Amino acid sequence: MLKSVTESFARVIHGLTVEHLTDHVIQRSKRMILDTLGVGFLGTNTEVFHKASEYSKIYSSNVASTVWGQPDLRLPPTYAAFVNGVAIHSMDFDDTWHPATHPSGAVLPVLLALSEALPPSPKCSGLDLLLAFNVGIEVQGQLLRFSKEANDIPKRFHPPSVVGTLGSAAATSKFLGLSMTKCREALAIAVSHAGAPIANAATQTKPLHIGNAARHGMEAAFLAMLGLQGNRQILDMQTGFGAFYANYSPKVLPNLDSHAWLLDQQDVAFKRFPAHLATHWVADAAASVRKHLVTDRALLPIDRIARIVLRIPDVQYVNRPFPDSEHEARHSFQFVACATLLDGGITVPSFHKCQISRPQVRELLSKVELEHPQDNLPSFNTLYCEISVTLNDGATFTERSDTFYGHWRKPLSQEDLREKFRANASNVLSCDTVERLTEIVENLEDLEDCSVLTTLLKGPSSPEMVSKSI
């Protein structure tokens, strides 16, 4: 029995095989991959993606990988993973897990970039991709369970920048077939690449956390391959990985013969609109209250509303009374509540500058108050939102959301997940390519050669792009 936590992680990364994958894990991870590709394609339209890709063009190598939806741009694998990771998180539209993190964005871009960069023989299969993807997800989940602090919505470090970096290193190590010793070294190196403060939430810098996690994890595995060494007990120590979390209490992972995937036990949440997950409870409750205030297609009677009270957890970085940018609006309980009351729902365009600055929105924002009930803890597994709207005549309407559609307790149907992917990917790809990608991902375990998948990620050629824009 191993006594070292770090050694036990290296053993799991090195030792897991496709035979360990369960049908449940395969199905759930395929849904994660489809959703991540879709939000990544949509994210290539954002300003932060364009800035990251322009910066990355200064790097070149003999080996290059696809930047999703950009047929004329190829980058070294580490930087392709970086910019694709930025695209995935550029609108905060990617999946969310419990304990809190965005698990897929730091892993999938790495594996797709590597699958292009590796020699064509032997071929990388869909099962190879699924195994490495799930190893990267598993490592993140196990690390998050070593601290009580990680159970709550974060206050200090943005989780994907911490566990995502190690998930990327683990997935890369698995995909490259590294030895157990090299897997351990990759984790140690990755810890020194990890960590970004939550203060950069609601800014253009936050998407870099996912891109950097993807890139740095891959770099850690490459450095381990070259013989670079780190602390052999990096996951065992308070001064190692424990530096990122209070109450850090790591445990040796079970032997492979008794391995149980965390994804089998805990599904992810898929978002229906691009904003911080906690705001989805707010939108759900606000939509219910609106039914009391608006009949048929009538407008919301803003002048009759005296007060709006949101009873939510105390999450300071999502408390933004008057957001000025799309990134602040995506992290504002207040904005999501008011936009939902005004428009009946939240969509991708809801966060455009012209929508945020509408006089009707600003007037409603001035009427919002927050309350933090003691039983409403800042955990994606237990939080709720209650909203009360009081009119000038004293009438008050109250609704509560305990679980929204898309949460792991009320998961999106496969058809609704497909529709989200189609809506997002069709901003960049042709309808035929979107349908072909959907079919490939939904049958990924049967794919013999991942180059079939990566070829479709390039997007349309230049004439096709001109035609699509016309």
TrEMBL record:
Keywords: Antimicrobial, Immunity, Inflammatory response, Innate immunity, Lyase, Mitochondrion. Residues 7-248 form the MmgE/PrpD N-terminal domain. Gene3D superfamilies: 2-methylcitrate dehydratase PrpD. GO terms for molecular function: aconitate decarboxylase activity; protein homodimerization activity. One of its GO terms (cellular component) is mitochondrion. The keyword Lyase applies. It holds the Pfam family MmgE_PrpD_N. Residues 273-446 form the MmgE/PrpD C-terminal domain. Its main location: mitochondrion. GO terms for biological process: inflammatory response; innate immune response; positive regulation of antimicrobial humoral response; tolerance induction to lipopolysaccharide. Transmembrane segments: none annotated. Its EC number is 4.1.1.6. It catalyses: cis-aconitate + H(+) = itaconate + CO2. Cis-aconitate decarboxylase that catalyzes production of itaconate and is involved in the inhibition of the inflammatory response. Acts as a negative regulator of the Toll-like receptors (TLRs)-mediated inflammatory innate response by stimulating the tumor necrosis factor alpha-induced protein TNFAIP3 expression via reactive oxygen species (ROS) in LPS-tolerized macrophages. Belongs to the PrpD family. Homodimer. This is Cis-aconitate decarboxylase. It comes from Panthera pardus.
